[in-house]
Each structure stands twice: as C-alpha cells, then as structure tokens.
Specification:
alpha/beta, TIM Barrel, four-stranded parallel β-sheet, 13% strand, binds adenine, binds zinc ion, A_deaminase_dom, EC 3.5.4.4, adenosine deaminase activity, metal ion binding
C-alpha cells in the first residue's frame, strides 16, 4: 500500500504517559488478583473509581484519582506486571514507541526501595514487545527533597540502562516550579536530560523557570500564551511541548476548550506533540486523542503527520531511534 492509501495515522508515539494513570479496570483486577487484594468496587463503580468525572474541578482533584492505582502498585511483582500490561496494551493500540513515566518514591509504602521499583518497571517493560523509554518523576511537594534527590541519583546511574530522562510531576498549582531550583541544578550537573510538567496548573512563569533550569522538553506548556515573548522563545528554540488534550480539558488547564491553543502553536512552528498523560483516568487512548483533535479542531492528516514527526524528533533517545521512528511515520520522507 502506498503512503497515501493507508489509514493515517495507524502508528503512534506517546511521549507522556504515567504508569499509575494507565491502570484500567482490567489491569486493576489483574493486579488485585495477583496480590489477594479485594477491590473496593466492581464493573461500572470500579471504572468510576479509576477515572475522573467530566465535572473534575482542577488538577488537584484529578490527582486524587491515583489513590487506588497506587495502592495496587506497592510490590515488585505488581509494578513489573503493570508495566508489561500497559506497554502491551499500547502496542495493541498501534503505539510503536512510548516514553512511560513513574515516580519511584510513590511505590515505597510497603517496604520497597526506589531502586526496587525502578528495577521492577524496567523488567516489565523489557518483557513487552513495545519499544519504550522510561522517565523517572521527581514529585512536587514540600518535604520530599531527599526522595527527589534519590530519584535523580538513580536516573543518573540507570541512564541508558533502562532509564532515559527525569521529570517533575504533581500539583503545580500548590508547589511552584521555582521551589525546585536546587534539585534541578544538581540534575543538570549530572547530565541526565529532563522534562518538567509546567504551564498546566500554573502559568507561563512556571515554564520560564523550567527552561531556566535546563528542561529540554515541557510537559503540557498549554499556558505559554500568557506570555507572547515566551511563545517566541519556545518556537525559536524548538522546545517540544508534550500536550495532552483530554487531560488538559479535564483539569481545566484552559478554562474553555474553544481557546485550546494547540492549533495556534502548531501553526507557529512550535514542536507540539499529542500524548495521553493518564489514559485510564481520562478514559482515553492515543488514537482517541488524535480523533479528538480532528473532530474538535479540524486537524488534518498532514498536521497529524507533522505532530508525529515532532514526537519522533523529541524522544529521549539516540539518532538511530529517531530516524527509525521518522521512517515508520513518514516512509520515504527521510530528510529532516
Ligand atoms: N501526574 C499524573 N498526571 C499529572 C498531570 N497531568 N500533571 C501533573 N502530575 C501528574
Ligand atoms: Zn503528566
């Protein structure tokens, strides 16, 4: 079949997906079964517990939905199996490369060390048939500096041995990016590349801080248009934005989706990408995100290709992986 004959896109790249936000009810049941845990609900009620309602107020309320998935992810076996199942599900949905992220410090409630958690997720991902990268998340908070430093040190040790990069996740509206200057000074010195969730629940200044720290990608970055000069900087420097349309809709990163700036950023040459963030919490998958952008904003096949090529260029991986992805997305269009 020629390039224009096949349904497009039939291959996807997801650069921004949280492992604990990808625990669907089938995965939750499997994790509960293997640990002898009785789930607090079944069928529709279980779905409801694992996802956020359309009436979600903000990111803070959104983040409350992680309680049950995190309860199920406190052993090596559960983390390994969850990573495997999430990666396999994505592969079945047409994903050819995914960067999966998780915060090891959130999985130490029953005696695991952060290292145990990282080893387990690396093992689960490597059992899957999906090409993946792993991003370790530090967490926004006020009393977890030691834990964040430990995550950063693990990322340095495991870089190119299962780990690709670092991130900062959590409640941006409660814990400002500027609080993490010291952490990211150390991370920058270590040479581990990083992205930062910014410009999601807080404004453009948060993204400016993330860039000042040395972030090479921005998680979301929806709100950069509060600062026109920042929009130009992001465009000129080719900083990829990991945007997640339905997550942004549900957390009200923009109040009115009529004002969702994705298509504007794309037309300005900003390296925007489409990702799922927390597919189980949002009841979405990567194909649904692309369909949403088409039906809601009229995104064309050519624009989808551009977005996927942006993702291919933005991966935390070597040039060989980038070129392979470009060849998969746009066969015959090899030149960068
Ligand atoms: N953790 C999971 N999803 C997140 C989001 N959208 N923002 C910040 N932290 C998160
Ligand atoms: Zn996220």
């Amino acid at each position: 079949m020629g390039r224009t004959d096949r349904i497009f896109p039939d291959k996807y790249i997801d650069l921004h997906l949280h492992l604990d936000g990808a625990v669907t009810s089938d995965i939750a049941k499997r994790l509960a079964d293997m640990q002898g845990i009785v789930l607090p609900a079944e069928s529709d009620a279980l779905e409801k517990l694992l996802s956020v309602g359309e009436d979600c107020k903000d990111l803070n309320e959104f983040l409350e939905c992680f309680e049950l998935p995190l309860k199920l992810l406190q052993t090596v076996e559960a983390l390994d199996e969850c990573a495997f199942l999430v990666a396999e599900k994505m592969r079945e949905q047409g994903v050819i490369y995914a960067e999966i992220r998780f915060a090891p410090q959130l999985h130490c409630e029953k005696g695991l060390t952060q290292r145990d958690a990282v080893d387990a997720v690396i093992r689960g991902l490597s059992r899957s048939g999906l090409k993946t990268g792993l991003i370790l998340c530090c967490m926004r908070g006020s009393d977890n500096e030691e834990k964040n430093l430990e995550t950063a040190e693990l990322a340095k040790e495991y870089l190119d041995k299962g780990v690709n990069a670092l991130d900062l996740a959590g409640a941006e509206g409660l814990f400002s990016t500027e609080n993490f200057a010291e952490l990211f000074a150390k991370i920058r010195e270590s040479g581990v590349p990083f992205t930062i969730h910014a410009g999601e629940a807080d404004g453009a200044e948060s993204v400016r801080k993330a860039l000042e720290f040395g972030a090479s990608r921005i998680g979301h970055g929806v709100r950069i248009n509060e600062d026109p000069e920042l929009v130009s900087i992001i465009a000129e420097r080719g900083i990829p934005l990991e945007m997640c349309p339905n997550s942004n809709r549900l957390t009200h990163a923009v109040e009115d989706m009529n004002d969702y700036p994705f298509m504007d950023y794309l037309s300005r040459g900003i390296k925007v990408t489409i990702n799922t963030d927390d597919p189980a919490i949002e009841r979405t998958d990567i194909a649904a995100e692309f369909r949403y952008m088409e039906s809601r904003f009229g995104m064309t096949a050519e624009q989808k290709r551009e977005v996927l090529l942006n993702a291919a260029d933005a991966v935390f991986a070597n040039d060989e992986v980038k070129q392979w992805l470009r060849d998969q997305i746009a066969p015959g269009v090899n030149e960068k």
